[in-house]
């Protein structure tokens, strides 16, 4: 994302990261810019971001524990919003109002599809007796259509990146799948242990569920 947005990042000194999560973008941005404000409503993620910034020695990160619309952040050179579907979907108010806070540019990141990260397409039929229904996911096209109606013609750049899920042990991985698939009992746990031992990748003593994802970086100058 940073490489795709390099032309506009070089023009900015401050950024507001809306829906910053645990800092996947806020922290790298803080290493390049003079100041980053992270807007994150989930208390656990906001706390994790503060701790990560402290560990990294980044004193130029301010975390605001609030959602867009709940706080009134000061204008920043750049406003960033990555993978926050409710804000980036078709007709979202955020897309019409973000220009009030962005002095120089707006940068958005949207999913463009990817692999079956948690093997649900295979596991649901085997363990739950039904197919895994993904439903319709709002994607980059919805965002671009809304921007077009607003008279905005952004730069659009496709990117690929890794979004691996690490696990300290195979038992931790099994517990993860048991929880998210709402499974109970020893039979599905035994099945998962064998299935995951064959599908996950070893990383020293740990395990990784590998995934390469595609996304679209969308940005425009104010």
Write a brief structural summary.
The protein is of the alpha/beta class. It contains nine helices and ten strands.
Description:
- This protein has 222 residues and is of the alpha/beta class.
- The protein has a single domain, classed as 3-Layer(aba) Sandwich (Rossmann fold).
- It is built from 9 helices and 10 strands.
- The protein has a 7-stranded mixed beta sheet with strand order 3-2-1-4-5-10-6, with helices on both faces.
Categorize the overall geometry. Answer: globular
Major sheet strand order: 3-2-1-4-5-10-6
Q: What is the name of the CATH topology?
A: Rossmann fold
How many helices in DSSP terms? Answer: 9
Number of domains: 1
- In the CATH hierarchy, what is the class? Alpha Beta
What is the residue-mean pLDDT, rounded to a whole number?
92
Number of strands: 10
Largest sheet: 7 strands, mixed
Overall structural class, as computed from helix and strand content, comes to alpha/beta
Proportion of residues in β-strands: 25-35%
């Amino acid at each position: 994302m940073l490489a795709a947005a390099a032309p506009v990042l070089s023009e900015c000194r401050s950024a507001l990261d809306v829906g910053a999560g645990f800092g996947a973008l806020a922290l790298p941005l803080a290493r390049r810019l003079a100041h980053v404000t992270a807007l994150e409503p989930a208390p656990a993620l906001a706390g994790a971001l503060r701790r990560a910034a402290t560990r990294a020695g980044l004193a130029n990160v301010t975390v605001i524990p609030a959602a867009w619309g709940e706080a009134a952040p000061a204008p920043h050179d750049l406003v960033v919003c990555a993978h926050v579907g409710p804000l980036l979907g078709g007709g979202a108010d955020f897309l019409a109002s973000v220009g009030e806070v962005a002095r120089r540019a707006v940068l958005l990141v949207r999913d463009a599809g990817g692999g079956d990260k948690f093997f649900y397409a295979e596991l649901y039929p085997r363990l739950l007796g039904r197919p895994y229904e993904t439903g319709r996911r709002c994607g980059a096209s919805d965002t671009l259509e809304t921007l077009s109606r607003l008279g905005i013609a952004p730069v659009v750049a496709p990117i690929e990146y890794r979004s691996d899920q690490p696990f300290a042990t195979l038992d931790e991985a099994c517990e993860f799948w048991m929880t998210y698939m709402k499974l109970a009992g020893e039979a599905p746990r035994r099945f998962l242990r064998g299935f995951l031992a064959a599908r996950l990748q070893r990383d020293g003593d740990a395990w990784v569920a590998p995934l390469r994802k595609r996304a679209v970086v969308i940005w425009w100058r104010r």
